[in-house]
Design brief:
The complex is a heterodimer of chains A (275) and B (306). By secondary structure, chain A is mainly alpha-helical. Chain A contains 12 helices and no strands. Chain B is mainly α and 306 residues long. In chain B, the strands form 2 sheets. In chain B, strands 1-2 form a two-stranded antiparallel sheet. In chain B, strand 3 and strand 4 form a beta hairpin. The chains are: A mainly alpha (275), B mainly alpha (306). At the A-B interface, helix 1, helix 2, helix 3, helix 4 and helix 5 of A face helix 1, helix 4, helix 5, helix 6 and helix 7 of B. Chain A: Residues 70-260 form the ABC transmembrane type-1 domain.
Chain lengths: 275, 306
């Protein structure tokens, strides 16, 4: 198709592509150039200028302030991602290859959980977590993310397993394999790509999540997203520190995107109903 | 038969942790929110007493009479509308260009998508600084300062602090909409691109030979074929916009005269800042109904197709 285009058309097309590239990069420019300025150089008047000399003061201070929260986020995200993926995989396996009377209805009822605005469960959730003594703790937040992550992980795995021929399960059954051994020897090994997609999807979502994090944690257990809003919300914190903090918050998921881009997009298209 | 029965039991056993937790965390808590929204728990003491005095739909009625909530509904409407239109227009335009596989297209595609990997909180933090207006006209900040340096002073205005209103549309939302479109237009692009790659090229070629213009090919062929994908994208984006809590919270808060307030922010403040638990729950249930109105017809439709 390309060769049929006139030069003029090509120029217009690239002009559009580049214009949008600039739009997408403006925040990145502001983030990077501000975060690398020294305290003395950070002033509103020079906001759009590159730093005269590179300074890591902002990063150093942001990191000192945010390091415990970065750790909190990792303590939260890793177990929550693993658990919700493994449970979702088992659920998806049962709901696609071991159907029983009412299992489709059950699937629809499970799925409903991913469409709700979380405000509609928020206050009872906070009370419940206080009652069971998990309010303000990382394990509490892990539990919440695993539970509300189940609908999407179940859906992603069910869609994946549905393409596996029924005959495969039937043949294994005849050979005397049971529900667990069929999962372990057939379904689990073939679903590694699916696991990668789900891991990335859950990692990104839970890392970036804010509503549960701000409602269910205290100063000790705040994940990075909450700590960033507190940092940015205080008037005394310099802009270079705030922008450094924003970069620190964004970096893990950005790295995941850069390294696993293909899987990230797959998950986005598959899991997009969650938004 | 017996074996079948045993199989069902094992299946249920595997599902049971998910079923039980979701029954409590989704259905139980929604019911509880509904219940609280029907009670009179708008003070801390009534909440502590756990008074069971039902007031019917009074909390909802009060909410819809309130100026702040009315503003929130207008804001949601306009934010959702322009957010979706922005994402569709930009996403579709970019996908059409990239579908021709221009040199470097892969690079651009990845560039447009990276904001999807970032938290709304980060997006809000950065764009808040970009759109902070400063004191006009003497002391501009952010993008207003850039306009001044470029000699484009006419474009300076109050951005998200502006209280201007046009047919119920708080123009302060423009700043928030730009930030949200920045984050999500890559998503529409990816959806459209995935769809376009599946379209038979011979179809396009045949139309071209018949003398169809590019615009005709787009409106008469591509758009109709891509309608289901576009619909899904609209549903997802509408869903995102109803939940834009983190973006607003990090970027602007409610703003002067609630110009950038949305129900989710009001719900959070009512519940956790001012002990108005029943009002907060009522807002939450209104949000749930709004999502339901949007999602249920869509789900019924897609299940029928399946």
């Amino acid at each position: 198709m390309d060769e049929k285009m006139t030069t003029q058309e090509k120029i217009i097309r690239y002009a559009i592509l580049i214009a949008f590239a600039i739009f997408f990069l403006i925040p990145m420019y502001v983030l990077l150039s501000t975060s690398l300025k020294s305290f003395s150089e950070v002033s509103i008047n020079t906001m759009w200028q590159l730093p005269d000399s590179l300074s890591f003061e902002g990063f150093r201070e942001a990191f000192t302030k945010l390091a415990p929260n970065v750790l909190n986020s990792f303590y939260l995200v890793i177990p929550a991602t693993l658990l919700s993926a493994i449970m979702g995989s088992m659920n998806g396996y049962v709901l696609s290859h071991w159907k029983f009377k009412g299992s489709d209805t059950l699937f629809a009822l499970i799925l409903f959980g991913m469409f709700i605005p979380y405000q509609s469960v928020l206050f009872p959730l906070v009370q419940f977590m206080q009652t069971i003594g998990l309010y303000g703790s990382i394990p509490g937040l892990i539990l919440v993310h695993v539970v509300y992550g189940l609908p999407i992980t179940t859906l992603m795995f069910r869609n994946y397993y549905q393409d596996v021929p029924e005959a495969l399960t039937e043949a294994a059954k005849v050979d005397g394999a049971n529900i667990f051994s069929i999962y372990r020897h057939i379904f689990f090994p073939i679903s590694i790509p699916s696991f990668v997609v789900v891991f990335i999807w859950q990692f990104t979502n839970i890392w970036n999540e804010f509503l549960f994090a701000v409602s269910l944690t205290d100063t000790q257990s705040q994940p990075i997203t909450v700590a960033l809003t507190n940092l940015a919300g205080s008037q005394v914190v310099e802009w270079n520190v705030q922008m450094s903090g924003a970069i620190i918050t964004a970096l893990p998921t950005l790295l995941v995107y850069i390294i696993f881009g293909r899987y990230f997009i797959k998950g986005m298209l598959a899991g997009s109903v969650k938004g | 038969m017996k074996r079948k029965h045993k199989e069902s039991l094992t299946s249920l056993a595997i599902l049971s942790p998910s079923i039980i937790t979701l029954a409590v965390f989704v259905y139980g808590f929604i019911s509880r929110s509904v219940q609280i929204s029907l009670l009179d728990w708008d003070t801390f003491s009534s909440f502590m007493r756990k008074a069971k005095d039902y007031v019917g739909l009074e909390n909802y009625a009060g909410l819809f009479r309130e100026a702040r909530f009315q503003t929130d509904l207008w804001n949601t409407l306009y934010f959702t509308l322009f957010f979706i239109l922005g994402c569709l227009a930009i996403g579709i335009l970019l996908s059409l260009i990239l579908n021709n596989k221009p040199k470097g297209g892969y690079f651009f595609q990845n560039l447009y998508l990276f904001p999807m990997a970032i938290s709304f909180v980060v997006t809000g933090t950065v764009w808040r600084w970009i759109f902070a207006p400063g004191r006009l006209p003497d002391n501009p900040r952010g993008i207003n300062l850039l306009f001044e340096q470029l000699g484009l002073d006419v474009f300076q205005w109050g951005w998200f602090t502006s209280t201007g209103n046009f047919l119920g549309f708080n123009i302060a939302l423009v700043a928030v909409i730009i930030a949200a479109v920045w984050q999500y237009s890559g998503y529409t692009m990816a959806m459209w691109l995935a769809g376009l790659r599946g379209i038979d090229q011979q179809l396009i070629e045949a139309a071209r030979i018949d003398g169809a213009s590019k615009w005709q090919i787009f409106t008469k062929i591509l758009f109709p074929i891509q309608k289901p994908i576009t619909l899904s994208a609209i549903i997802v984006l509408a869903h995102v916009s109803l939940k834009a809590f983190a973006l607003i919270y990090a970027m602007t808060g409610s703003g002067p005269n609630n110009v950038t307030d949305i129900p989710a922010v009001y719900m959070f403040e009512a519940t956790f800042r001012s002990n108005r638990y029943s009002t907060g729950s009522a807002i939450a249930i209104v949000l749930l109904m709004m999502v339901g109105l949007l999602i249920i017809p869509y789900l019924v439709n897609s299940f029928k197709e399946e």
